[in-house]
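#onboarding

Welcome to the new folks! Below is a worked example of what a typical request in this channel looks like: someone posts a single protein sequence, and someone else replies with the predicted structure as tokens. Don't worry about understanding the tokens yet, we'll cover that in week two.

Example request:
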Amino acid sequence: MSNFIKRDVLGWGLLLWLVGYLLGFVFYALVPPAIIGWFVMPIGIGLTCIVLWKWVQVDSIRDSLLLGIAWSAIAMAFDYFFIVKLLNPPDGYYKFDALYSTRHRKCKESNGLTGSFGDRSWARKAII
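Example response:
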């Protein structure tokens, strides 16, 4: 097994997942469970960028793709076993924190949030 796979793919992938996992427990005591991802995600992205910038060396696009796919697979697999199976959260687990907020979706369903690009009332409705 090459040094790239052992250290960069598996080592950093597991360590970054573990940091996010532990941050989830820290934020569980501080914020409502439905928005934990909004607090963990920026820290995780920042930490991942620092790790990529300072310690991970990729030589090709192929290695970059392998790293991204492997880190994503590690995160999904470990989240499934250590959150979904072990902790059995009542509302499932994965929510699209970065793509579609629960607040926005609920507002859209309850207030008829159907604005176009020219209609600026959607922002007011999303806040209410």
